[in-house]
Design goal:
Blueprint: H1 2-16, H2 34-51, H3 59-75
Helix pairs in contact: 2-3
């Protein structure tokens, strides 16, 4: 998790974060949102593969197009995982109830 946190705070947000607004929410405690952690982890892994030495000349462009844009759009959607969070404030989310599967 330390590597992901360092990448999000040291590269992703300074370069691609844009300002948080009600239209583009971001939670300052993003690690409290399991969906966000899962998506950011996948984005980070793709970044490592596509921008590294074996990523090829088009790897970084593919990362931007295929991974960065859709992931940030999903995360920053007003109905996405950060819905209800504000600048400087995290709001825990209610997870859906799951009933026990009948035997």
């Amino acid at each position: 998790m330390e590597g992901l946190v360092g990448w999000v705070s040291g590269l992703l947000l300074p370069v691609y974060g844009r300002e948080a607004t009600s239209r583009l929410p971001w939670c300052p405690q993003w690690w409290e949102h399991l969906e966000a952690v899962a998506q950011l982890h996948a984005l980070w892994l793709a970044w490592q593969e596509l921008t590294g030495p074996n990523g090829g000349l088009t790897g970084p462009a593919m990362w931007h197009r295929d991974y960065l844009a859709p992931t940030m759009q999903t995360l920053r959607d007003p109905d996405g995982p950060f819905a209800g969070c504000r600048i400087g404030g995290h709001r825990p989310k209610q997870t859906p109830t799951v009933e026990e599967f009948p035997a």
